[in-house]
Amino acid sequence: MGFGQFLSSPEVKLRIVTYRDAFQDAAKVESLFGEEYERLSATILLDAKDITKLSIKENDTLILKNKSGSIVVKAVESGYEQPHPGTAYMVNSPWSNVLVPEEAGGTGVPAFKDFEVVASNSKGAKVTGIKDIV
Amino acid sequence: MDNDYYVCTGCALLCDDIGVEIEGGKLTKVHTACRKGVAFIKGCRHPLDSTVKGERTDVDLAVKEAASILKNAENPLIFGHANSSSGAQKIAIGIARRTNGYIDDTSSFCHGPTVEAIIESKLKTCTLDDVRHKADVLIFWGSDPANSHPRHMSRYSYFPRGKERQRGWEEDRTAITIDVRKSDTAEICGKNGLYQIPVKGDTEFMEALTSALSGKVPKTSYDFDKKRLLELAGILKKAKFGVIFAGLGMIYSLEDFEPLYRFMDKLNSVSSFHLIPMAGHYNMRGFNENLFKETGYINRVKFNGAEVLHGPEYSVVEALRKKEVDAALVIGADPLSSLPRSIVRYLEEIPLITIDPCQTLTSTKADVTIPCALVGVESGGAAIRMDGVEVELKPMVETDRLSDEDVMKRIMEEL
Ligand code: SF4
User: Fold this and answer.
1) Origin, by domain of life (chain B) (predicted)?
2) What band does B2 get if pLDDT is binned at 50, 70 and 90?
3) Contact indicator for B393, B381 with CB cutoff of 8 Å
4) What is the rounded radius of gyration, in angstroms, for the C-alpha atoms of chain A?
5) Is A90 helix (H, G, I), strand (E, B) or coil?
6) In terms of residue numbers, what domain contains B56?
7) What is the pLDDT of residues B270-313, one digit of tens each?
8) Rounded distance, CA B268 to CA B30, Å?
9) How far is the CA of B331 from the centre of ligand 1 (A)?
10) Do B116 and B261 belong together in one domain?
11) ipTM of the assembly?
12) Mean pLDDT over each residue of chain B, to the nearest integer
């Protein structure tokens, strides 16, 4: 156990926006239970400032949690020209769906593309696997 | 190579120019399709087995067990359909009617409102063939076809030469993306092609554009550059044949469709604009049209004797959230993948039937699983493309698995 285990990890509130990815989609079609689908799904794209705030390095894993659930995903810098601190992007998948709030205001349409989570350093925890989700 | 062309059912673009090579009855090569289409046509690595309570069994027994679950239920849910042939969808509607069940599809939580508005002629639309031959201004609003429908831009919207678009995309077409981030589609639209707006900023942007088209100063609370907005209004006004490809980014952001109707009305008073919903699954539109013909509603229906009930309370999301259904048959969808985990957990508490060519997250929790042929590859039928055009599907290879329509027919017979 390293010294870092005893330090409290900063928690950062993030607004998650989901999107589609053709390669992740193809990986799903080939094998929903495969490593490639997990690799392309369990990732969050962050603004450089949020990476600093979270005291993590790129490719570290993060815990994302809210009232709906919690998952561990890999953190990657988005590389978008326009800065987006406070907003992070995830490809739409069973991983993002763990965090989508159940409450749909009676409309029948959950907020798939816009919800909040609290992110913190997972201190080396493994990315959540598809089997852990179901 | 087989001289015939086939249709890819990998997405609602239903590309009908697919070439395949077959050796010894097996598919060896797929030509023309995109990466996703090739993966789809080649089939999944984990085909579904016929099982009852986790034990392998023959299809006859699984069908009988599925029928018995539906017969014993008071309020069964018949859900999915977006990846089913039209024939299977029609029987699914019959099963819901026979069992006084709920019936809903994935459009319930995605493109339903747009398809409904088009079917009810509240939004002007056109076909993808019209787009290829005529469209000069393309707006990808909250949509990213480079990822969701990989051949959209090359086959229909941006790059092809059409009857009235013979000079190539650089001169003949203007492509614009309105989105919250620089998507791959936005990259293709070029340096000034992206209008980046804040999350949930769509309604205001639409209203500001409507003002600009009316000659007023466009304003947004997020101070979007007025000059750029006026420039965009100028491009829209000059369009001879404009098309908005509406994605979920736009649909989810609108509280209601009134701003969209006002915007389309204004646009059509100064130029000519159409809207096509970027439906994802290959036959979601088919289900909407089939249910509409039967009931007057495109989704979210509950049969109650001769009565047809409709509304958000009959949507898959609310029915599961409120635990109103007591059994479920899922065909052509994977709700455990595509819906919030907290909502679909309830499916594990009730008898669950899954019909699919492949193992899915939903099938891992099902009491009964029934494999079916992959539509468009192993079985034929019909489907309706995202623009409302019916497309005939024919099988590329033979299989001993039943078609999705035959599985549904067998269940109906047992009822
Ligand atoms: S764009 Fe869609 S229909 Fe066309 S080949 Fe790709 S997945 Fe298939």
Assistant:
1) Archaea
2) low
3) yes
4) 15
5) strand
6) 45-110+282-374+400-414
7) 999 999 999 999 999 999 999 999 999 999 999 999 999 999 99
8) 42
9) 21
10) yes
11) 0.90
12) 95
